[in-house]
Amino acid sequence: MRSAHHPATGDLSLPEVMAALSDPLRIGLLRVLADGGERGWGELRAPVAKSTLSHHLRVLRDAGVTRTRQEGTRCFVTLRRDDLESRFPGLVAAVLAAAEADGVGGGVRLASDAA
To answer: Which residues cross the membrane (predicted)?
Structure first.
């Protein structure tokens, strides 16, 4: 399997990051990953097909919002919070606060969370 491309911190583009965060499901993924933990793709639950979830994770990765690490056949994803904060101070906190207040992305959860 080919390795994933992750833009360098200095190459993060505000329009690309904002475009990646323009979908409620991707905001939900941001909310789930905001605790700083690394999550296996199989731990993520969303109201979409696995192929669609994979697409959304790729959009976030390509924009530099997340980092994907492969270990054998498993993939793990983390939020690039420090990189985003250094490039766009306060952006992640503002998006998370607005998403929480408006209930955006609430359909995304971890497999270990109660339904």
So the answer is: none
